[in-house]
Write a structure and sequence with these properties.
The complex is a heterotrimer of chains A (406), B (391) and C (426).
Chain A (H helix, E strand, L loop, with lengths): L1 H26 L2 H26 L7 H22 L6 H24 L7 H20 L19 H19 L2 H11 L1 H6 L4 H27 L9 H14 L4 H19 L10 E3 H24 L4 H26 L3 H4 L2 E3 H19 L12 H10 L4 H4 L2
Antiparallel strand pairs in A: 1-2
Helix pairs in contact in A: 1-6, 2-6, 2-9, 2-10, 2-11, 3-4, 3-5, 3-9, 4-9, 6-9, 10-11, 11-15, 12-13
Chain B lengths: L2 H8 L5 H29 L6 H18 L13 H27 L7 H22 L18 E5 L5 H27 L13 H24 L2 E5 H23 L1 H11 L1 H6 L4 H26 L10 H14 L4 H20 L6 H15 L14
Antiparallel strand pairs in B: 1-2
Chain C lengths: L6 H20 L43 E7 L6 H20 L8 E7 L4 H14 L4 E2 L4 H14 L3 E3 L14 E3 L4 H15 L4 E7 L3 H17 L2 E8 L7 H9 L4 E4 L3 H13 L5 E4 L8 H5 L7 E4 L8 H13 L10 H18 L5 H9 L4 E3 L2 E3 L12 E7 L2 E8 L7
Parallel strand pairs in C: 1-2, 1-3, 3-4, 4-5, 6-7, 6-8, 8-9, 9-10
Antiparallel strand pairs in C: 10-13, 11-12, 13-14
Helix pairs in contact in C: 2-11, 3-4, 5-6, 11-12
Classes of the chains: A mainly alpha (406), B mainly alpha (391), C alpha/beta (426).
């Protein structure tokens, strides 16, 4: 009864990966393929950081460092062995080997960073992880054998989207299944109260280091996949802001929620590419005026304030609230041209032409702030996706918008 | 293997005194920014990632102030005065204070009571918004910089620690006239041959140029030998101004925090947020006050940085100093005001000594290495308490 | 989620995964999987590209013109560190396309310039290029920096789309393959030009290097300058490093001062070089400063103040040059962009040139597809660009271009000396 279910789900996961892979290859161009691959890598990164940050409560903001260690380790070995020495191992097996090597390398790095976490708390740990990331980046940048500040290039390309997604699934499965075991619960205990959990006999040291080692191993594996997908990696790919973006994915989805990490990783890594598709009527890049931008910002502030008021005062019944939110958003959308008109006399704004591309990061930042203001616990809070939950929704009709929207 | 001899060979002890001074002067700016991080952290337990962006906006305010004072991109004004610098400083400090308060009111206050990591993400969001949103409205392409003419105190002075042998000074004097005559000969030739320039001489005139260059080189070499033979410290006027202004501001800050009623209230809030509120302290106004102080210091730092070091200003101006100052704050023990100053100065010294040792490639990494080592030995930072933090 | 509870399941899943992988790699996925189309002939990363060596041919299909306007792509840094160059490059490219369409396009068809942002980041630049290729562009133009171009160029090579880089001077860049071109000179030329100028014209003997270790451009340029300068008989007394965004150079300069250099070669970009020049003067160093095309901006005079006056750098062309091509270009620019009457950096002209090279090739192209267009670009012979004549024929993507050394004066850049491609000791 039990075993067939396990084997079945294992095979199902692999089947899904192959499905993703073949759909991707058959229906999309290489641009979309690459996005799907990168999204998969980001899912792995977010879920593995969630293990350290969300589940174990260790505040790490240097996840890109482990990603970089994995990418450079695997990239370097592959380049030396295949490109420079001319060996031709079977690509997929080689890639799997490299994933394991990268995971091992990154987990050693994770162990080194995890050790200080025995003594450091909260923000102090955060700055150590950040510092570690910078140290790695500067070392790589100054090592000529790794391509220095330019790039480690000529890495043999082994582009296996199914492997990328399989790693993501394995990462999800490990985190999820960990939480169902007694040992996994000790991770949560450490997050909730370190002193109390150590009083209850939890080996806090071991839990923290395990979380770091496991989380960074997955990040390293993701790095190996990136290196072989791109064929060329640069130190610029692993800067501090990448760490911030991964952290943002974790928090936005809901700290500790694996589902949340997955969903927000998909959302946030696709968002910049989606914004690329915004075009004006004639196919040219969308250009908006400065007044429209400022008006949109003002309207956003007003709408957020209005929604927040309704939310905080618990006005109306949950069902009605959903309607009111929709009303506020529609109202805000209608107000925008009005403000735009009001601002028109300001010559500086009226003359300003802003290309949509320039707005990409602004929209990203605003989305971040608005979501945090309206739903600080993250979109999914601590909830996980489960079939029961789906049944509940289907059985009881639409859930109140406070549960799923925001 | 050859690391140790290389290490020793690269060390030049005659420049060590100057490098130590450099390090301290550099650290003053880090300390000034670090204070803002540490004060906000002390009161709210929030890493204010947007602090670097407040600093960036301070530089823009100083830039616009300098434009209004008549030192715009195309202006020809050359004489300036202390008053101009004070106006720029005041403008930066006051507008930064205002911006800090606005950020607190609209982004951080609604997040109070939420998990700290959510506030942190909001701070990152604000920081990104100011960096990229600012790029839409503020001049950043090409990145402008404040005209050097606004600073009446340009230049530097030399503090001699040991004087060079007098024969060198005599040599310089003797070589001077020859270089001058040779150069004059070349210039005369060029003046009389309008279709030849310094870089397209006819072969006949080439010796003239060679002679002029040789004479000039002998003179310059003698000058350099003179400059390098004694041990002395070259200090830039701007750095001195930055250092003393920073010190004055820090003393004012210490006074405000230690000896005024508001300062006491601030320390109470920092010690225990809820109890302070129960004791009748208006927590909101104290937090606003904290942001005013921290942001004003950032504004002062930005103005001085942009004015005296000529840094080009983009909306990413605050990124690197922000991170370094944050590290300094943690190094000293975040939440601790003297700690931030100590951390800043140490950071400056560490970086400079790294450069002195010939490892300028790794100067930025060393700050983090030291930080990690310090934190391993003293988990609460140098002056911070290492009691177990209860979240 | 999909895998049921208990951690031993995970082990099983992993084992199964590996098993499947082994089966999978032998059977199912032959057609759409292209492992390693790009293992390049191993050239060492520091060896200069042999200019006439035959390059790898792209096996990509390329895009074909179908209907409507002819699409040409541009990847520009509209955001991030490289924005000053990105916006100029974009404006130059737009100008060329507008002019081309006004003149009737090719065979009655107009050209549409699709622009994507790279945000100054290599991986975003790659996304941008792939997006453009997916949109059906026949050729890609860009980028201004080598790190980004390397990533983009790789994608273009795989797809068989020609890429004409604008200001990417990294020497080995065109090793990517036969789809990679550029309209600028390489660091292997620029560095030697400045070394020759420093040694022969300025009579400098002991030069120190200031290198921005974060920029591949800067490290590459310092290297090529050093090699030639030492070959000529000069001495590199010291090399100090800084990082983009650094504001204080006093510590580095104190070190340099003790080494008594008579010149400093600052190979970075102007936002750091300007303040550095001010600080060089204040540190009491009496030296000549020299640099590469990264200095090129109207802003450097303000940023560098008095200290930058009288210093020299290497440039592609100069707004004050007395050539008709430059004058016409500046007039056109002024008419098109009244708010920004003079291009602030040379990327304005190089963006214009890169686009013009592609458009010129389009006219000569045998058919409207990437392959024919690539051949036509490769055939570009003595094209009269704003920045000088561009010949791609037989040059492996690296046009031999003249470089000029300019002197900074209060009034702007003044021409000092021109170097033709063959008159430099390397």
């Amino acid at each position: 009864m039990f075993w067939p279910k396990r084997i079945g789900s294992g095979i199902a996961a692999i089947a899904v990966c192959f499905l993703i892979d073949s759909i991707t290859h058959h229906s999309f161009g290489s641009y979309e393929q690459r996005i799907i691959a990168l999204v998969g890598i980001y899912v792995t990164l977010a879920v593995s950081l969630n293990l350290i940050n969300g589940i174990t409560g260790q505040f790490s903001i240097g996840h890109a460092a482990f990603y970089q260690v994995g990418a450079y380790l695997a990239g370097f070995i592959s380049r030396r062995y295949i490109t420079d020495a001319g060996h031709t191992p079977p690509p997929v097996l080689w890639l799997i080997g490299m994933i394991l090597v990268a995971a091992a390398g990154a987990s050693i790095a994770g162990f080194i960073v995890g050790l200080p976490s025995l003594r450091l708390k909260g923000d102090y740990l955060a700055i150590v992880t950040l510092g570690f990331g910078e140290i790695i980046r500067i070392l790589v940048q100054n090592t000529d054998a790794l391509g220095g500040s330019y790039a480690l290039d000529k890495i043999p390309k082994i582009q296996e989207i199914w492997l990328i997604w399989l790693l993501a699934f394995i990462c999800i499965a490990v985190c999820r299944n960990l939480l169902k075991t007694a040992r996994g619960l000790t991770f949560l205990a450490v997050r909730e109260d370190e002193i109390a959990s150590s009083a209850m006999g939890v080996n806090v040291t071991r839990v923290k280091v395990t979380a770091f080692v496991l989380g960074s191993a997955f990040a390293g594996a993701a790095g190996a996949l990136l290196a072989h997908y791109e064929g060329l990696i640069t130190p610029a790919t692993f800067t501090m802001d990448v760490s911030f973006i991964i952290l943002t994915m974790v928090v936005l989805g809901g700290t500790g929620s694996i589902t949340g990490s997955v969903v927000s990783a998909i959302f946030l890594s696709y968002l910049p590419e989606y914004l690329r598709t915004l075009k004006g009527g004639d196919g040219q890049p969308l250009v908006v005026s400065g007044t429209a931008v400022v008006a949109a910002l003002i309207v956003t502030v007003l709408a957020v304030a209005a929604i927040k008021t309704v939310l905080n005062r618990h006005l109306f019944t949950p069902q009605k609230r959903g309607l009111i939110y929709v009303g506020i958003i529609i109202g805000a959308a209608m107000l925008e041209p009005l403000f735009s008109l009001l601002l028109h006399p300001v010559p500086m704004l009226a003359n300003m032409q802003v290309a949509a591309a320039q707005l990409r990061m602004v929209i990203f930042a605003v989305t971040l702030i608005v979501l945090m203001l309206l739903r600080p616990q993250g979109v999914f809070a601590h909830h996980e996706f489960s079939w029961d939950w789906v049944k509940k929704i289907l059985g009881k009709g639409p859930v109140p918008s406070t549960e799923v929207s925001a | 293997m050859h690391l140790v001899p290389n290490l020793l060979a690269a060390l030049n002890f005659s420049t060590l005194p100057e490098q130590l001074v450099n390090g301290l002067l550099l650290g003053a700016i880090y300390a000034l920014i670090a204070l803002g991080y540490t004060m906000v952290y002390g009161v709210l337990r929030l890493i204010n990632f947007a602090h670097g962006e407040v600093y960036m906006l301070g530089a823009y305010v100083a830039l616009f102030a300098s434009y209004h004072l008549g030192f715009g991109p195309n202006s020809t004004a050359t004489s300036s005065s202390l008053a101009n610098l004070l106006i720029m400083l005041f403008a930066s400090m006051s507008i930064c204070a205002l911006i800090g308060v606005i950020i607190e009111r609209f982004a951080y206050r609604p997040m109070r009571g939420q998990s700290r990591i959510a506030s942190l993400i909001t701070a990152i969001g604000v920081s990104l918004l100011l960096q990229y949103g600012g790029a839409l409205f503020l001049p950043n392409s090409p990145p402008p910089s404040i005209s050097e003419n606004v600073n009446p105190y340009r230049g530097s002075f030399v503090v001699p620690l040991s004087s060079p042998p007098p024969s060198l000074a005599i040599a310089v004097k003797q070589l001077g006239p020859e270089a001058e005559t040779k150069n004059k000969a070349l210039q005369d030739y060029l003046a009389s041959h309008p279709n030849e320039s310094e870089f397209s001489l006819s072969p006949a005139a080439q010796p003239l140029k060679d002679q002029a260059q040789d004479a000039q080189r002998k003179l310059d070499d003698a000058k350099r030998e003179l400059a390098n033979s004694g041990v002395n410290i070259t200090i830039r006027n701007g750095d001195v101004i930055i250092f003393f202004t920073s010190m004055v501001l820090m003393i004012v800050l210490t006074y405000l925090v230690r000896y005024t009623k508001r300062g006491r209230a601030m320390r109470a809030v920092s010690h225990d947020f809820d109890s302070a509120a129960l004791m009748g302290i208006n927590v909101n106004s104290i937090i606003t006050f904290t942001f005013v102080l921290g942001s004003a210091l950032a504004g002062a730092g930005a103005m001085m940085q942009a004015t005296f070091k000529g840094t080009t200003i983009t909306t990413f101006f605050g990124l690197l100093p922000g991170v370094k100052a944050f590290v300094a704050a943690v190094l000293g023990g975040i939440g601790n005001i003297p700690g931030a100053v100590l951390g800043g100065l140490l950071m400056g010294l560490a970086e400079t000594i790294m450069v002195w040792m010939g490892y300028s490639r790794y100067a930025d990494a060393i700050a983090f290495v030291i930080l990690i080592l310090v934190l391993l030995l003293r988990p609460g930072g140098l002056l911070g308490s290492d009691k177990v933090e209860k979240v | 989620m999909i895998i049921s509870s208990n951690k031993s399941t995970f082990k099983l899943a992993a084992a199964a995964a590996v098993l499947f992988a082994m089966i999978g790699c032998d059977t199912g996925k032959a057609p759409d999987n292209k492992p390693d189309t790009t293992t390049p002939a191993s050239t060492s990363p520091t060896a200069p590209a042999a200019s006439t060596a035959s390059r790898k041919s792209s096996t990509g299909e390329g895009n074909k013109y179908t209907s409507g306007k002819i699409l040409i792509g541009l990847v520009a840094s509209e955001n991030g560190d490289l924005r000053p160059w990105g916006v100029d490059c974009e404006a130059g490219a737009k100008l060329a396309v507008a002019e081309f369409n006004k003149a009737g396009g090719v065979g009655g068809k107009e050209v549409e310039l699709r622009i994507e942002d790279s945000a100054s980041k290599p991986e975003q630049g790659k996304s941008a290029a792939e997006k453009l290729i997916g949109d059906g562009v026949l050729a890609v133009i860009g980028e201004v920096a080598s790190g980004i171009t390397a990533q983009m160029g790789q994608s273009c090579f795989e797809k068989g789309i020609p890429d004409v880089a604008v200001g990417a001077t990294k020497t080995t860049l065109t090793d990517i393959g036969n789809t990679q071109f550029r309209v600028c000179y390489t660091d292997a030329f620029q560095g030697p030009v400045m070394a020759n100028f420093a040694f022969k014209e300025l009579g400098l003997k002991n030069v120190a290097l200031m290198t921005d270790k974060k920029q591949p451009y800067s490290t590459g340029l310092s290297e090529s300058f050093k090699a030639t300068f030492e070959k000529l008989g000069g001495k590199i007394v010291d090399e100090q490093f800084y990082e983009t965004g650094q504001t204080d150079f006093k510590a580095q300069l104190t070190n340099l001062k003790a080494k008594s250099p008579d010149g400093i070669f600052a190979s970075g970009y102007f936002p750091e070089v300007g303040p550095m020049a001010r600080q060089v003067k204040e540190a009491g160093l009496t030296v000549k400063m020299l640099g590469g095309d990264g200095w090129d901006s109207s802003e450097i005079l303000n940023t560098g103040g008095e200290a930058i006056i009288g210093q020299f750098f290497c440039n592609h062309y100069n707004n004050h040059e007395d050539r008709p091509a430059v004058k016409t270009f500046l007039d056109k620019w002024k008419a098109a962009y009244p708010n920004n009457p003079v291009p602030a950096t040379t990327m304005g002209a190089l963006g214009y040139d890169a686009t013009s090279v592609v458009l010129d090739a389009l006219k000569r192209s045998k058919s409207l597809d990437s392959k024919a267009l690539r051949d036509a670009i490769e055939d570009t012979d003595n094209f009269a660009g704003v920045s000088g004549a561009i010949t791609l024929k037989g040059n492996g993507g690296n046009p031999p271009k003249r470089a000029i050394v300019v002197k900074l004066t209060k009034g702007g850049q003044v021409f000092a000396k021109a170097y033709e491609p063959n008159e430099v000791v390397k």
